[in-house]
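User: We ran a pulldown and think these components assemble together. Before we commit to crystallization trials, I'd like a predicted model of the whole complex to look at. Sequences follow.
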Amino acid sequence: MSSSEDDIPIVQRSKRILDDSEDDVPISQLPSSVKKKVKRETDDSVSLNHPKSKSSNGTSKSSSNGNIKTPKKERTKKTPSDKKKPNKSLQVKSEDKPTKQEEDEEETEETYKWWEEQEDRDGEIKWDSLVHNGVLFPPEYEPLPSHVKLYYNGTPVNLPQEAEEVAGFFGALVETDHGKNPVFQSNFFKDFQQVLKECGGCNVEIEKFEHLDFSKMYAHFEQLKEDKKKMSKEEKREIKEDKERQEEPYRTCLLNGRKEKIGNFRIEPPGLFRGRGAHPKTGRLKRRVFPEDVTLNLSEGAPVPPPPEGHSWGDVKHDNTVTWLAMWKENIADSFKYVRFAQNSSVKGLSDFKKFETARNLKHHIESIRKDYTQSLKSELMQERQMATATYLIDIFALRAGGEKGDDEADTVGCCSLRYEHVTLRPPNTVIFDFLGKDSIRFYQEVEVDKQVFKNLKIFKKPPKQPGDDLFDRISPPLLNKKFQTYMKGLTAKVFRTYNASKTMQDQLDLIKNEGTVAEKVVRFNAANRTVAILCNHQRTVSKSHGNSVQKINDKLRELMWNKIRLKQMMLELDPKLKRKDPKYFAEIEDLSKEDIMVIQEKILERTKEQVAKKFERDNEKLKAESKDQLTANDLKERMQKVKELQAEFKIELASGKPEIKKSVTVEKLKSQVEQIEQRILNTQFQLKDKEDNSEVSLGTSKMNYIDPRLTVVFSKRFDVPIEKLFTKTLREKFTWAIESADKDWRF
DNA sequence: GGTATGACTTAGTATCCGGTAC
DNA sequence: GTACCGGATACTAAGTCATACC
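Assistant: Here's a predicted model for the assembly, 748 residues in total across the polymer chains.
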């Protein structure tokens, strides 16, 4: 690198790789060294039919043949330059920052519709050319102000910078569940002491975690949060724009000459490992990643982005059989972390499409698979019997495969790793599953199973087996998957989950009638989604505000109920004979006791008081701003008088049991008001039920990973529900291929 | 056949951000 | 204008599975 280049800030230098040198140059026109001869595998190719390839009757083939088109063609080896050159509009532009509108247009123009391509896309080669600007490193550590210290036994500790950073990681978490977890504390403390030792120690001998006092650090971080909140809009905007400017070069890359988004272009910052569940390593220090730890992957001959000043890359690879752009080794589990394409990239889209097509293909085999494993449940061979039983559990209860786990990981299980204690048998054929699955999420289900499955599980638990022993001791996920491959190409344990999730969704959607408002249809769609989420055991922790908001809705319901009763009381006041005519209609008048009513009235009064007080404050602030005379305490008293009047009315009503009737009121008018309130009650109850039902169920995971997006698109089209109501912006981008390729008649 | 490795998908949670009520 | 709430997004941990190697 020339010295003049050295003077250019890293951000600008790397930006130039895409912006200057390759700007407006399609990859196919790059120097020949960039182009790479590509050998494509042609076996079992998958491609999508696109709207242009209609059958003679004008309907898309996708609805009838499942979009799979696999004529094996002998293909000659292709080089990138043989491929169709991208449109001018697809080339990366960067000079003159485009306006927001231009950006949007550009976005639309640049979207590569891979699903409209005719070519086969299977095989080992994942890309023909890949050019990118490397990765974004987290900022260097900024030392704390000198007055913010860690204390040990009351003594302020002068920590070296490296150790202060680690202490700060903990300091920020002291009040969280992690910070209070003894394993987290102990792991942190060991690593903290190690770092301290590495950088030469400090003024105090630190021996016990219990003597550490992080309160000053914690207060400092809290203050920083507060300050951030208090920043003006302008300041916040500037910071955001700065951040975006810095990230810009790393957001996208050139994949086969087309601009594509990158997902996690940021190297993970150092911190304390937050393992889920009872993870033995939770709290360990995740060390800072340096360029020397990072391997880049890009086209041979493509310009290698310069590493940050004074550093060099660990390695630079040119492997087009993988889809990562950069990787590094992390120090907790000693595994790799990858920088990959974004969810809406062609690479991810194609992979998603293939996943759903494989799952969809299972429908042609599922019947014979079920027949086969039902037979094998009675096999003489223990291994076969275990295989059949495990397949049954994976198919029917959507269990994961359940690979072996080490002692240095959380103790979680799936099907093959189920142990004696995870399954309880209750004759004649009830099985109680109780175990921690992925992410230490509890799987608890009491289910009735096939009689032979029950028998088998009983055999698998027979002595000398005891708690701690594997239920399925003769099989493993690789063995299961090997067997699955004999049923169908590409079939593995996880495909059953995708298949059953999408099949369930389709069945549920089929039950929905095309009636009601859009909002009602969305609620029904979500209910179908929820069935799938429950099948897959997708949970979430109840939000902190959940109890509060449920309480609010319940209060609202009681208030509505009271109002309805009052209206009915008024009706009887106007025409007492009504009660004899329709006793059922008026029966609910007795539903609320005097105490109930008092509580409701108090809540209303309280709320009204608060409203008046707040309005008073606001008005005063307004007057102050206009330099006018302030409202006085007397004014407030006057305003509060109205609340007092209301209170008096309530009191009279409570004593007499008769609400005040206005002159113009008629029985008919009251009846219509009752109907209105009843509708509101129904809506509110519906809203409450939805909230309760969803409080512990996470719908997003199944929508994102398991439900074929084309099902959602079909629902949207058939039921006239805008796709925006069913997919967020991110999901619409991720599933553009589905939105543009599935028609009304598509079936999973 | 078992284990290690590497590359990918799936997953829950933390944080951001925009709408709404006041 | 602000505080609050909830949905959307970002982050990264934790799975699955193919392949290589012995």
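Chain A is about 45% helix and 5% strand. That may be worth checking against your pulldown data before setting up trials.

User: Thanks, that helps.
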